[in-house]
Amino acid sequence: MPWHLLNNFTAALLALGLLMFIAVMGDYFLRGPHRLPIDPVWQLPDTDPQRGRDAIIAHGCGACHTIPGIRTADGRVGPQLADLRNQIYIAGHLPNTPDNLAHWLQAPRDIRPGTAMPNLGVTEQEARDIAAYLYTATIRTRAPEDTPGPDR
C-alpha cells in the first residue's frame, strides 16, 4: 500500500510497531540471544538451600508467594517463585543473578520504591541461602515432609 494512502492513525500505529521492533531487535543484537544462560546452574558458594528453605518459612515468604517444595507457601500477593533460575529479570528490571536476587531479598524497597514486597530484615547469609533454595526449586520440587500422605 502506498504511504500517501494511509491515514494519520494507521501511519502512527505502523511507526510505533516499527520502533518497538527496532528496540527489541536492538536489544537482541547488542546483548545477544543468550543474555542469561538457558537453564542456568548458578554457583552459590558458602550457601545451603535447606537453610534457605528454613529462612523462607521463618520470614513468612509463603504468605505472599507460592514456593515449590514448601507446602504452606501458597500466597497469591507476589509472583510464584517456581523455576526462578530461568527468569530473565527480578522485580521487573534487575537482571536475574545471585547477587541481584540476594540484594533484592535484603532491601526490595531500596531497589524498587513502592513495591509491595516488605523489608523483612533478611540477613546477607539468609538472602544467599534463600537464593540458593529458589534457584533449585522447580514446580516439581517437593520436600519429603511436604509429600502428601494418606492422612493429608
UniProtKB/TrEMBL annotation:
<dbReference type="InterPro" id="IPR009056">
    <property type="entry name" value="Cyt_c-like_dom"/>
</dbReference>
<protein>
    <submittedName>
        <fullName>Cytochrome c family protein</fullName>
    </submittedName>
</protein>
<keyword id="KW-0349">Heme</keyword>
<keyword id="KW-0472">Membrane</keyword>
<keyword id="KW-1133">Transmembrane helix</keyword>
<keyword id="KW-0812">Transmembrane</keyword>
<keyword id="KW-0408">Iron</keyword>
<feature type="transmembrane region" description="Helical">
    <location>
        <begin position="12"/>
        <end position="30"/>
    </location>
</feature>
<keyword id="KW-0479">Metal-binding</keyword>
<dbReference type="Pfam" id="PF00034">
    <property type="entry name" value="Cytochrom_C"/>
</dbReference>
<dbReference type="InterPro" id="IPR036909">
    <property type="entry name" value="Cyt_c-like_dom_sf"/>
</dbReference>
<feature type="domain" description="Cytochrome c">
    <location>
        <begin position="47"/>
        <end position="138"/>
    </location>
</feature>
